[in-house]
Design brief:
It contains no helices and 12 strands. By secondary structure, the chain is mainly β. A 12-stranded antiparallel beta sheet has the order 1-2-3-4-5-6-7-8-9-10-11-12, with no helix packed on it.
Length: 154
Amino acid sequence: MSEIQDEVTTKKLRIVDDNGRTRISLSTFGDGFPLIELYDDSNKKRASLGYDPTNTREVSLRIGTGTDDLGGINVRVDVGGRTSIDTGDQKSYIQIITSNGAPVITLTGHDGRSQVVLRVRDGQLPELMLLYKGEILWRMPEPLAEPSEGTTVQ
């Protein structure tokens, strides 16, 4: 019978199946940030869970297609309470975020620019914008015009 150890110290732990294929990897990346990666039968990364204490100090769950960038779905939560869900590849994607309690849905094209933005704020009309190359083509509701001199706004 083998001896059971109370603790194992290593930089990376790789768990393999009966055929020697990596199925789970526990490691660190960057400056020691924790990372868990799950692999399929073809040794392609399908999901990862990591924590990055720099900048936003976010926890990130990525569920992907097996490519290096994963694609698929990326869920992030930072310490400020901002939640983000992205789906797609790294060029075009759908992003759903909450910032200060206000939900925003953004559709981004292959050029990396937002093309459709839907924003909802408490006590205000929902805002929908269509953009092209960073310029607003259409906006609903239209921004309110500044009142001309001598008029009153009720």
